[in-house]
Design goal:
Layout (H helix, E strand, L loop, with lengths): L1 H29 L21 E2 L12 E3 L5 E3 H4 L4 E6 L7 H14 L9 E6 L6 H11 L5 H4 L2 E4 L3 H11 L1 E2 L1 E3 L2 E3 L3 E5 L5 E6 L5 H12 L9 H6 E4 L4 E4 L1 H26 L1
Parallel strand pairs: 4-5, 5-6
Antiparallel strand pairs: 1-7, 2-3, 4-10, 8-9, 10-11, 12-13
Helix pairs in contact: 1-9
């Protein structure tokens, strides 16, 4: 009788711990900024966002889209992308993220032990229809100085129509929004295969040469790779008003609570089995 009673108590205790564990998960998932049903537009990886990036790994961009290069020549993306290509989006009067992004791109290109023009191409596209080839040429001069002159022509600065800009940004999954005379937007570079397949997203304003080199090598093989930085993007959210990234404390605390709950639950189960 005592053994039976003890077994009941143990079963009740186990059931209670399971309920506590599930309740913890439920509370965390209901917290602001967490859960599979998150709809905040500040997150980079939501299905429905106004500003940010939704990854389209493995998709092929439309290579027949045409733009004007910095020399006012009309050129299609397919005419440039015949090898692995790094692409990024900016607008030339940007007061915040765009210049640091271009500095970061120029810096990593100067440090890569790959040859621009031979091993890969580089494309910067303005998403502001008011930008012109003349402005593109002026802006390009500021950033190509770190690159050897013979390779500078392989960094294309493109402007275009709203139709073609929307087509390429939508294909990449890049969302931006006008705010007065400026734009709210995220900061990243995108790596494409010689056939225009999206193989990698790299986020931020600066980039490690090793990461970019590996992304280019993988793009040559046409192999899409998941973004390790998704963990960082989960912890940081983009603020459109300040055009900066802020720490998501609620998300981090929620993840820690879930981790602790899982560990506690696992320990209790192991103790139960040993008894």
């Amino acid at each position: 009788m005592q053994v039976f009673t003890l077994m009941i108590r143990r079963n009740n205790k186990s059931a209670m711990m399971k309920r506590i564990f599930l309740s913890l998960i439920g509370c965390v998932m209901m917290a602001p900024g967490l859960g599979a049903q998150e709809t905040s537009q500040s997150g980079l990886f939501n299905n429905e966002i106004e500003i940010g990036i939704t990854e389209h790994l493995g998709d092929t961009i439309p290579l027949d889209l045409w733009f004007f290069n910095e020399n006012s020549d009309t050129i299609t993306l397919g005419q440039i992308i015949d090898k692995p290509t790094i692409m990024c989006f900016v607008y030339f009067d940007c007061p915040n993220l765009c210049s640091p992004l271009m500095d970061g791109v120029a810096d990593v290109v100067s440090k890569l032990d790959l040859n621009l023009g031979t091993d890969y191409e580089l494309i910067t596209i303005s998403f502001n229809t008011k930008d012109t080839p003349e402005k593109a040429r002026e802006k390009k001069v500021n950033f190509v100085q770190r690159i050897s002159k013979e390779n500078q022509e392989h960094w294309a600065y493109l402007t275009g129509t709203q139709e073609n800009i929307s087509a390429i940004t939508n294909a990449i999954g890049y969302k931006y929004k006008p705010q007065g005379l400026d734009f709210a937007h995220a900061s990243a570079i995108f790596v494409l295969s010689p056939k225009g397949v999206i193989t990698r997203y790299l986020y931020g304003l600066t980039f490690l040469p090793f990461d970019v080199k590996m992304a280019v090598i993988e793009a040559q093989k046409g192999i899409p790779r998941p973004t390790i930085n998704r963990i960082l993007e989960y912890c940081f959210a983009y603020n459109p008003s300040s055009q900066t990234y802020s720490l998501q404390v609620t998300r981090i605390l929620g993840a820690i609570i879930i981790l602790i709950a899982l560990v506690v639950f696992a320990v209790l189960i192991l103790k139960k089995r040993k008894k």
